[in-house]
Design brief:
Blueprint lengths: L8 E9 L2 H6 L3 H15 L1 E10 L10 H13 L2 E4 L9 H10 L2 E3 L7 H34 L3 H15 L6 H17 L2 H9 L5 H10 L12 H11 L5
Helix pairs in contact: 4-5, 5-6, 6-7, 7-10, 9-10
C-alpha cells in the first residue's frame, strides 16, 4: 500500500521525458520539477535525491536505468517515490498496479490520493485512451473510404497524412507541423457526424453549434467544451458550411 506522507517525510523525485530532444532542451523537465517542488513545500516533504530518464512510457519503469536507481534509493533511504504526474511512471493500469505493490509512491499533482485512487485513476485514463484510439481508427477508415470514393477534400487530407508519416522519422519544425496538421485532420473527422447531426437538427450559427455539441456531451480533442471559434476551425477543416 502507498504510505501516508507527513511532515519531514523523505522523498525520491523521479522525472521522465520521452525523447532525447526533450531531455536536451529541458522541455517538460522544468515543469515536472516545479510540480514536485510545490508539492514538497506544501506537504513538508524532503527531497533527498532526484533521478530522470529519457525513455518512452511504454518501457516498464523497472526496465528504465534511472527509474531502477530511484527505486533502489527509495529502499536505501526508506523514502517515498514521487512523480509529477502518474503517466511519468506509466500509462498502463497493470504497471501502475504493480508499482503500488513494489514501492510507496505519490503523485505531485494529486498528493493526497491513496493507492486505490491512483489505481482507479490509471484505469479510467487507460479506458479513455482506448476509446480515443478506437474513435481515431474509425475516423481514419471513414476518411480513407471517402477518398477512395473520389472525395477531393478527403484525398488531399490522406495525401497530407501520408506525407506527414513519410517524414515522421526526421526531426525539425517541418515534421512537427506536418504531424500537427495530420492530427488536426483526424480529430476533425471524429466530429463530422456530430456536427452534421447538428446541422440536420437546424443549427445555423457557430455559437449555436458549440452549444449543441456541449449539450450532447461532445468534447474537443483536449477534452474541453466547444466555443464558437473552435467550431469554426473544425467546420473549415471539414469543408462544411451551414445550410
Amino acid at each position: 500500500m502507498t504510505a501516508t506522507l507527513n511532515s519531514a517525510t523523505n522523498i525520491i523525485a523521479y522525472y521522465r521525458v520521452s525523447t532525447a530532444g526533450q531531455g536536451e532542451s529541458g522541455l517538460g523537465l522544468d515543469a515536472q520539477r516545479e510540480y514536485v517542488r510545490i508539492a514538497a513545500e506544501s506537504n513538508g516533504w524532503t527531497i533527498v535525491a532526484e533521478f530522470e530518464d529519457t525513455a518512452s512510457g511504454t518501457i516498464p519503469p523497472t526496465e528504465r536505468i534511472h527509474c531502477k536507481a530511484a527505486l533502489a534509493a527509495c529502499k536505501e533511504h526508506s523514502a517515498t517515490l514521487v512523480v509529477a504526474k502518474l503517466d511519468r511512471l506509466s500509462r498502463d493500469v497493470e504497471v501502475i498496479a504493480g508499482m503500488v505493490k513494489r514501492v510507496p509512491f505519490k503523485v505531485a499533482t494529486m498528493p493526497h490520493a491513496d493507492s486505490l485512487q491512483l489505481h482507479l485513476y490509471a484505469a479510467m485514463a487507460q479506458q479513455e485512451r482506448d476509446f480515443i484510439a478506437q474513435r481515431t481508427k474509425a475516423a481514419l477508415a471513414s476518411l480513407k473510404a471517402r477518398a477512395e470514393a473520389g472525395d477531393k477534400d478527403a484525398q488531399a487530407k490522406v495525401a497530407r497524412r501520408d506525407a506527414g508519416r513519410a517524414i515522421a522519422h526526421s526531426k525539425g519544425t517541418g515534421a512537427a507541423i506536418a504531424a500537427a496538421q495530420t492530427l488536426a485532420d483526424v480529430n476533425a473527422e471524429t466530429l463530422r457526424d456530430a456536427i452534421q447531426s447538428g446541422m440536420f437538427a437546424g443549427v445555423t450559427t457557430l455559437l449555436g453549434m458549440a452549444q449543441y455539441l456541449n449539450t450532447k456531451g461532445v468534447r474537443t480533442a483536449r477534452g474541453g467544451e466547444f466555443a464558437a471559434m473552435t467550431v469554426k476551425r473544425t467546420i473549415d477543416r471539414l469543408g462544411l458550411t451551414f445550410p
